[in-house]
Fold:
Amino acid sequence: MASPRDRQVTGPSRILVVRTDRLGDVLLTLPVFSHLRRRFPQAHLALLAGRYAGAVVEGSPQVDQIIWYDTETGPAPPREIRRALRAGEFDAAVVVHPTARLAWLVFLARIPVRIGTGYRWYSFLFNRRVYMHRKTAERHEVEYNVELLGVLGCDTVARKPLEAHLHIPPGAADAVAARLREAGITGEFAVIHAGSGGSAREWPLESFAALAQKVSSGLGLAVVTTGTSGEIPRAETVARAAGGRGSCFAGALSLQELAALIARSSLVVGNSTGPLHLGVALGVPVLGLYPRIPVMGPGRWGPYTQKARVLVAEGPLDCSECDGTPGTRCACMAGISVEAAVAAAGELLSQRTITEHPTNA
Structure:
């Protein structure tokens, strides 16, 4: 571990980034590692994350270590997490999306430099505070994330496309290749992720089904639907709409296999969810469907790439349905037409460069 005198000259040598929520949130945090790596090329960079979302980061050349925030069966005891953080001998922690529990953990782990928001009641636990209101959604989540690094002297200008540097294990790529062969999919295909796991406003199921039919018959792509095990009926409905060219992979893929599937696809369509950002991270064109309400809208959560089209519901900014329980039906989202989605998908497909799809990325 660098001495205090060394750190004054070279900056922190062991940096922890804390992001323990969903897949999309973790993906939109990965540019933080690119900025840190450019500023501190020799530093040891670690991520504190949940096991499900953090799995997508395994093998990344940008991340030297992952510390799990939970266990295989549930939340990890705070004492164990604190012990792991102390063992890491970190001299700086960037708490990207804070909770009181996380703020206390980095404080009790005695990490000398603790960077976080200045607007929470527990912000006294951070000794490098950055004052920003994410709830106003004036900027993108990626931009909010990298702004935290200014106190370390890092460049805080986010770059497009999303800097993620993901690695897909050969085993995951092979498993997906085999599953595609079993499904009879040998050419180009689109991934349609019609659910959200309750994290976003959802385009209606019948609209996704109509889009799948048009993608298959009009745009000439096979359709693979994805989702959690609880979303299998929804994904099966969309796959059936594509006729003989639709296959349902919902509930059958690990996160790394989902990444391998998306890496081979020609298009990803979905609500504001992790798989949409996974498509961005892997360089695949994406079509996103969003509510108009700013805190959930594309201004903050849109695909961070030029290879995207976004369709936004034409509802009022204070729509009580849009601002209600995520995952429930909203008339504003139903107002996004299938015709507009088909046109946007066709536009994306016409602009891409057709290359052989990789089996690894």
User: Anything to note?
Assistant: The chain has a mean pLDDT of 91. The domain at 4-152 is CATH 3.40.50.2000 (Rossmann fold). The chain has two domains: 4-152, 170-351. The two ends are 33 Å apart (CA to CA).
